[in-house]
Amino acid sequence: MIVPDKIKTFLTTTKDISFGYSEINFCNVDNLMDEQIGYSLDTNGKSLTTGNDGDWQKEWVVIASDSMGDPIIIDTSSAKLTVLSAAHGEGEWEAFVIADSLDNFKDILSLLTIASKDRTNPVDLEQNPLTSKEQKDILRSIKRQNPDTELSYWEAFFENV
């Protein structure tokens, strides 16, 4: 697996996000191959990609997981490095767009980092709840910059906030 330098740089400069009960935990770039086990590779390093619909695609690289344990994926076949997610444990992979590009994903993470200030854990969030207006503003910004994005992913992220 060849990982573009842009992804490596992203992973070395990006920090995990904790927002109430929701989290996004990023892979360590030095262990990126190990993070592909169970997705594109089995425990012996053998490829699990077949090219069939519903199977893991060879162009997909796991870069993180969310609080539900679902992978956050970059589609390296896309020049923009589209960011995807897919529910694990469903028997097949039905990936959907959560950011139209890696650059837009960085922008989303910046919004979440700002909004999570003083709200990184459930106790802090209870003392300083996210307002409906703040949530709507963030979702509106995400959709405006990412017209192909499945907004329900981000709505679900805020359900745990």
Brief summary:
The chain is of the alpha+beta class. It has helices at residues 5-13, 32-35, 102-115, 122-127, 132-145, 151-159; strands at residues 17-19, 22-26, 60-66, 71-75, 82-85, 96-99.
Low-confidence stretches: none
Q: Would you tell me the overall average pLDDT?
A: 94
Q: Characterize the biggest β-sheet.
A: 6 strands, antiparallel
Radius of gyration, in Å, reads 16 Å
**CA-based shape:** globular
| Share of residues in strands | 15-25%
Q: What does this protein structure show overall?
A:
The protein has 161 residues and is α+β, with helices and mostly antiparallel strands. The chain has one domain. It is 35% helix and 17% strand. The chain is built from six helices and six strands; from the N terminus they run αββαββββαααα. It has helices at 5-13, 32-35, 102-115, 122-127, 132-145, 151-159; strands at residues 17-19, 22-26, 60-66, 71-75, 82-85, 96-99. A six-stranded antiparallel beta sheet has the order 1-2-3-4-5-6, with helices on one face. Helix 3 (102-115) runs antiparallel to helix 5 and helix 5 (132-145) packs antiparallel against helix 6 (151-159).
